[in-house]
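Holo prediction — magnesium ion.
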Amino acid sequence: MTEATLVAPGRIHEFTTKDGAGTVEVGRKLARLLQPPQLLLLEGDLGTGKTTLVKGIAEALHAAQADEVTSPTFTLLHEYGGSREGQPVKLYHMDVYRLESERQLETLGLDELLTPDALVLVEWGGKFKSIRKKATGEILIASEGGDLRKITVTLKG
Ligand SMILES: Nc1ncnc2c1ncn2[C@@H]1O[C@H](COP(=O)(O)OP(=O)(O)O)[C@@H](O)[C@H]1O
Ligand SMILES: [Mg+2]
């Protein structure tokens, strides 16, 4: 399955994983590539591993243990404090799947989150034009059958 990227072309990194642990490991590697501030769309069908990937990112930033990172589907926003290359990082994990309008989205105050030390990861962020406009990149996870996943990371600039 191929899907068009939602952000402008940029630096592209591709990974293939064959289980959840592999996707956590890719998350750990990504944490090194992601220099804050970033707002990334986290795209892919339900159950492809978006939340699983954030577990690896959170671990590598010393922000949370993998099992502490749970889906923000109902809470909408989870915040973790961590560090990267000796600098503090605020990791924000959002899931806007259940939000239906830009108005509902406004209550989350996304603009205020995007401080210089912020890494904002938004599951289903591509749904909203206002988020797409602010995005600095996109992580797309596509199922390739069974537990195989292709992870494509596009970073602007
Ligand atoms: N290659 C893989 N990468 C990520 N998750 C996988 C993979 N193979 C199987 N899984 C399983 O699929 C599920 C993904 O769940 P989750 O990360 O919550 O998905 P999403 O946030 O995209 O809805 C987990 O139960 C995970 O163990
Ligand atoms: Mg999820």
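READOUT: The chain has one domain: 13-155.
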